[in-house]
Amino acid sequence: MKQHIESLIHIALKHLQESGELPAIPAFIQIDNAKDKAHGDFASNIALMLAKAVQKKPRDMAQQIVKAIPPSPYVEKIEIAGPGFINFFLSAQALNDVIKTIMREKENYGKTKMGRNKRVLVEFLSANPTGPLHVGHGRHAAFGSVVANLLDAVGFKTHREYYVNDAGRQMDILAVSVWLRYLSLCGENIPFPTNAYRGDYVVDIAKAMYDIHGDHFRISAEQVFDSLPADEPQGGDKEIYIDALIERVKHVLKEKYQAVFDLGLENILADIREDLTEFNVHYDHWFSERQFVANDTVGKLLDKLKESGHVYERDGALWFRATDFDDEKDRVLVRQNGQRTYFANDVAYHINKFERGFDIAIDVFGADHHGYVPRMKAAMQASGINPERLIHLLVQFVTLYRGGEQVQMSTRSGSFVTLRELREEVGNDAARFFYVMRRCEQHVDFDLDLAKSQSNENPIYYVQYAYARICSVLKQAKERHLKLHEGNGLAHLQSLTAPQERQLLNTLSRYPDMIITAALEYEPHQLTHYLRELAADFHAYYNSHQFLVDEVGLRDARLVLIRATQQVLLNGFNLLGITARESM
Q1: Phi then psi for 391, rounded to 5 degrees?
Q2: Spatial distance between the Cα atoms of 261 and 256, rounded to a whole number of angstroms
């Protein structure tokens, strides 16, 4: 409906331009939902935008525009309010046609082709496979999943990707952590490093290794720890110590080290895959950093950067001239020892995204990666890629509350709350809904008690209860042998004149515009807010009117209306990846 009103204004502006009263038509005409329904259904500030250019008062400009707007069967009246806002009131036909559209399009209602099948890669979560997913990871998973679903809904060809960082130092620390726990099970006296992974999951992997392989990977503790530098509790540096220990473990295990490494990686990656599948998060591709590096794709892409003249050598290291592109300092690509930095691999990976033919690449990163954005955009620009094609969405942290008290969490110690534990406590639906209720750049205070409560204060319960209530009404009609005649209901839509009916119709009409806005602005919270509003409108209607009335025309019209409401709720639930519950 916004598009229709925009077209009406555009026709009026074109008429004014042709008559010489307007020098040019703006490229963008803003149409907003009216906050107060007493002031209409939609409003535009176009007169205020144009008034200065034509040297007229905004209200005078508004009067000219309104006079030039052609009549429309979907607009009942147009009013000018305040300093020059133009308010549009929808006609009964416009609202009734919404029901016909919903019943005709069903699961396709709200979907458009405006994305024109442009290829979009959404990389999200990409947590290092060094342990189970925690509650913070869950927000990334839910957010990225819903953003991709929204983009699909408006006509983009969306590809979901998980970047498996399986080639870095943290993976070596994990392998060493698992192996040391394994040695303890073999009977060796092992001083566990300060900087190792300490969670129970590490012990579980070590037990699996011992159960399968017995003493096959056993090496005496003396061979492992002899002549190593001191660890932190003994006055040493924990970083230096863990790096030395990694080198020692690789040396004593030789070719067996890769087997230990793979066992830890595969165990945790399998757990992550299972966790996400149960959370209704799916990927088209799990991109392995290790395989990417092994085939020397990184080296080839770095050579291209060298050819561009944006790379130089200094102090034995290879540097990227990031300051040429407004970054705060130049960045190291290859260290003095010949090892590539994580940044080098990541630059190559992002160039690879566009070489694979994607028009847009979206990164869903943690808020602590904000400094990473300008350097990555600089690298794209240096590679001849328009940096505007790379979009970063930064997701803030999650804080859990139970009984009004914050739930304490840490990571390396292993005492964090896992995503699986959260899902088991509150359910997948509540977790996904609560995760995307706020803008990604806002912190989420996750109230566990609220998420589990069966009350109207619980937003997921509130919207699912609306769907269940509709199912209950339709079930009662069936039990009373009151068959819904959809055609008769559509023929009697003019009988839907109650304020609650008009409000519900109005909200249903806004669904397609909301989906477009939520998708293009990468804001899933707009969908959750809409569903809560739609549920509120339905509950108000449910509490004030009977649906299974004796008058057949009115009954069928009301049943068609709630069936349409049920369909829109279902469409929204599917985009959020949550369940439509038929009973509560």
Answers
A1: -115, 130
A2: 9
